[in-house]
Amino acid sequence: MALKALYPIKFQPIFKEKIWGGNKLKSVLEKETDGESVGESWEISDIDGDTSIVLNGSLKGESLKSLLKAYTSDLIGKKNYSIFGDKFPLLIKFIDAKTDLSIQLHPNDALAKKRHNSFGKTEMWYVMDADKDSNLIVGFNQKMDSDKYLKHLKNNTLTEILNFDRVKTGDTYFIEVGRVHAIGAGVMLAEIQQTSDITYRVYDWDRVDASGNSRDLHNDLAIDAINFNMKDNFRVDYSKIKNVANTLVNCSYFTTNYLPIDSEILLRENTFDSFIIYMCVEGEATISTIKHSETIKKGETILLPAIIKSFKIEAETAVLLEVYV
Asked: Each residue of 231-259: pLDDT tens digit?
């Protein structure tokens, strides 16, 4: 690939039909999909077989993987490139659950590496839309150990010990590896996670697909991956000061800030030695460098390469999630 100047990059969304998916990605976020049960829009992905393709500018048609190989640290930062090499460290999604997702969890880095040669899957959720009385399932509603858990699993009473959290727009959750969880019916959210597609499904509401088949469960793998001693610290409290980057999650895998813009031009400096991702969860904003300008509206995502150090964000009203490693 002949190297060209890097700029704010948009990617073609990768849509995933799911048994639990709906149509909010199309009807609310105006995604160009004809599917009636699209559960996920992968905004930025370096998962094998699902690598994002550039949608805008002079690099249109190039894959994220080819950009990583060509631009290395200019794309993701020197520190990140020294750790991850030609592998993009995050997977960015919008998710629409028309019905409940399966009860599931994700393994940690060590277990995922040993079993699947993969990263683990630490993730976070920002709720963009929630029907009345919608829930997220996060953790247990009582002190738990493996014997008690397995008893409920065997008796098909797992839901009796799960913690159901009623949610509304703006609620934010940090889902560490080993925590049992599920997105409930009627919830649409933004998800930021490690680059991993490893999920251990432990219960799927006894449902079957159009052919009468139930989905695979992974209880043998899951029992060693569940952390029964986690604190109930999954709800994220955060400030919402306008025109300021308010910290949502700051962990070893990613930092996410809540950035509400109100009739302002924000001058931003990239001092993180990292790419920056912006997910627009409300309104519309324009991100400009010296030579390039791109607008993102609700439901769109943009990647600013690490080499871009100064830029501005302009919006009459918008809410962005700002993500970097």
From this structure: 888 999 999 999 999 999 999 999 999 99
* Catalytic residue from among 115, 166, 179, 201: 201
pTM over cut 0.90 = yes
Residues 58-108 have pLDDT tens digits of: 999 999 999 999 999 999 999 999 999 999 999 999 999 999 999 999 999
Residue 298: which residues within 8 A CB-CB, separation 6 or more? 29, 280, 281, 282, 283, 284
Closest by alpha carbon to 195, among 77, 84, 114? 84
201 given a catalytic annotation: yes
Nearest to 325 by CA among 243, 260, 249: 249
5 Rama sector, left if φ>0, alpha if ψ -120 to 50, beta otherwise: beta
The answer to whether residue 153 is domain-embedded is yes
Give, as one character, the DSSP assignment of residue 188: E
Cβ(119)–Cβ(194) below 8 Å: yes
Residue type, 136: L
Same domain? For 181 and 283 the reply is no
Q: Could you give the CA distance from residue 46 to residue 48 in angstroms, rounded to a whole number?
A: 6
Same domain membership, residue 250 and residue 218: no
**What are 217's strand-pairing partners?**
none
What residue numbers bound the domain in which 170 lies? 14-222
